[in-house]
Amino acid sequence: MPAPMHRQSSHHTIPFFEVCDGGAEGDDLAAAFVGGRAGKFGRESAGGDHAVGVAEGGDFDFEQEVMGAEGGRGGDGVDFVGFAVLACEGDNAKWNVTSVIRDPSQKDDILRTVSDHPGKVDVLVSSLEDVKSKADAQRVIDHSKPNYVVWSAGAGGKGGPSRTQTIDRDSCIHFIRAAADTPSITKFLLVSYLGSRRTKAPWWSDEEWIATQEVNNGVLKTYYPSKLAADECLTATASQRRDLQAIVLRPGRLTDDEATGKVSLGKTRAKGSITRGDVASVAAELLDSEAQGWLDLLEGDEPIVDAVRRIVKDKVDCIEGEDVDGMLQTYA
């Protein structure tokens, strides 16, 4: 894979590796890392395939699975092109984004979408299915030299249980372990989904937990344990490397509605929706903060900036009630 072209910048380099998730097999519990334009770009220009990317200057390196189980949405609604736009606007214009995609025919669409924005976007070609070990993941990381990693990749419900396990669980864990062994990487944001937990959240009702279990053990019976394993691995790994800021962002059902700029972040109800644009904005704000831990996300009434400030100030962590010691025994 050729080396990406990086623009020289006077800003501190913040490489960012983003792997977008196409894994939800049920519409109620979809999760994704999406772009800042109401999530339309990914479906229009990259629907139905896998993308990986890198960025610099801030340098965002992001890989995403845009295999859409629902209408080419990008599996869980992933919109890597929309995020590239977000990363090239305003204060983020210093970032250079390199999107690494599996289908080279998408290149022109990606570049055309971001052509009117001041940041720089490059396109490379790669595939998550080729990542079979930590060493494979390390090669991608070494190629892009990121400081941040964002993962929301998945099989998108295609290819059967083994493919979901390979991408949503195994490949993600390889990248978590490789990132943890890379001192320059200081943040890892993993996009999961709202129901990814072993025990009832203390703030949920019994009815909400029963409904969540029915979905996890039904339509998400392969996706749920795969995604949970990745969440728990990141938590355990970050506990062993204290300078690695680990964020597990857990959106509810994604919608195509226009972003509102207002959310419910932290300890939310067990079911609900969120726009793709708002997920992207929350992810960007979290990366620009000291937030860490598990954070549930739904539509709401609180401005995104205020919500992120609140959860940082109050040290909100939705991992409450989970067996962290068990995670450490399994993955540390």
Write the topology of this structure.
Blueprint: E1 15-19, H1 40-45, E2 49-56, E3 59-66, H2 80-87, E4 96-101, H3 107-113, E5 120-125, H4 134-144, E6 148-151, H5 160-180, E7 187-191, H6 206-216, H7 223-240, E8 245-251, E9 253-255, E10 262-266, E11 273-275, H8 276-287, E12 293-299, E13 302-303, H9 304-313, H10 324-331
Parallel strand pairs: 1-3, 1-6, 3-4, 4-5, 6-7, 7-8, 8-12, 9-11
Antiparallel strand pairs: 2-3, 2-4, 10-12, 10-13
Helix pairs in contact: 4-5, 5-7, 7-10
Q: For the report, how would you describe the main beta sheet?
A: 11 strands, mixed
Distance between the termini: 32 Å
What share of the residues lie within helices? 25-40%
Mean pLDDT: 74
Instruction: Evaluate the radius of gyration.
Output: 18 Å
* Structural class assignment: alpha/beta
- What is the strand content? 15-25%
Q: What is the string of helix and strand elements?
A: EHEEHEHEHEHEHHEEEEHEEHH
Helical segment tally? 10
The count of strands amounts to 13
Runs with pLDDT <50, length 5+?
1-79
Shape: globular
What labels describe this entry?
alpha/beta; about 20% strand; eleven-stranded mixed sheet; two-stranded parallel ribbon; globular; about 325 residues
